[in-house]
Amino acid sequence: MDLHVRLGGRGDLAEQIFRQVLEAILDGRLRPGERLPPSRALAARLSVSRNTVGVAYERLAAEGVIEGRVGAGSFVVPGPLPAHPAGRAPTGVVAPRASFTARPIERQAPPVEVRYDFGIGTPDDSLFPLTIWRRFVAAALRGSVEEYSTYGHPAGHPALRAAVARHVGVSRAVRASADDVLLTNGAQQAFDLVGRVLVSPGLRVAVEDPGYPRARLLFDSLGARVAGVPVDDEGLRVDRLPPSARLVYVTPSHQFPTGVTMSLRRRMALLDWADRAGAVIVEDDYDTEFRFGGRPLDPLQSLDRSGRVVYVGSFSKVLLPGLRQGFLVAPASLQPALQAARQLADWHGDVTTQAALARFIDSGHLARHIRVVTRVYADRYARIAAGIDRHLARWLAVVPSSAGMHVAALVHRGVAVQASDVVGEAARRGLRVHALADFAAGQPPMNGVVLGFGAIPSARIDAGLALLARAFAASGRPGGRG
Predict the structure, then answer these.
(1) pTM of the model
(2) 414-425 pLDDT, tens per residue?
């Protein structure tokens, strides 16, 4: 490959070449086993004698970082490189420090191979209609080159905005036109755009507790004063909202992570509170397409008559997370600011994927896919509920849920075991499961577990729950219900 080397001044040219090639090797730009430019070619490009380059290469070989091969050239030595002062930071130099305090949320590697995966948030990729999807992507790529020759609208591909408005209008009774829809790279970018537009340092933001950690951390990173608000079997406790809160993040249709549905009485109370407080509600309507029981309640957005609700949705669970397709439906008063924030962030999303998804929705394939997946997930939910009753009834009680891709279960009062301990014991046995305490924001954490069923085949559920029961038995003693 062509290696960039800068030569300047009247100093030792061989020394300059040596130093810059050494730095390229030590910082990984030239990888182990990679061939260096031939000395003749590098000398011609730098307008120096071949002997000058040869001296530099001889010094690199003496340092043990390159080796010559007869008839082949010079190569970076394979394997680990020797420690060298050139790879260290200069003494006295202070590295720049970020004012942004958040850190990436990383999955901890399990102590042993995961044999039973009850992880949450992962859809079953074997159910994804890949052949059909490829056809729509190919059709989108055959479109006019004009779609790719200019920057698009920050709100996203017009056809997908219209398709999303129809989809959520039919499936969730959301009141929206294409102009109300802004396409995003997943739900997380939607939350970020809302935060950029509405959150200023010191603003009080209320979130569910337990709740979705990435939303809480996002608002915190923007300088908000984030307050956790407890949830019960009717959802968010509206009576516990801080009076000073001006933004409320909720998952009313399928509370994350407990799975409860916010009652209609509580929804109306929240909308009334937002009117009186002059607050905005961010409604995260994640994974509610997978409904397998009970009558669906209207989303807050469809009940809102004051323009207080920003509705956020995503196709990450319905299709695949890697496609990064999400959206928000916002009041007209917020659209200009949200679109400007999107344009400043990354202008717009991937045109090909958005065009393909628009065709996928309009053709009816999305609706058919959702029906297929819902039947599979309904079966897995039923198997988990029955398996907990069969193997874990001494320890756990299922929190009733009627949608989604996971189920929560609470440890009975009087049981001398902490779910967090059980999760660690289960991991050592090759089972992935989550503790409700992992999603706490400040309130006393609930003692329970969360089991996802997107990543585990139906046939492995019962054996996985039997293994979880052994983890409970190893972590404490069963007690009475109550």
Answers:
(1) 0.83
(2) 898 999 999 999
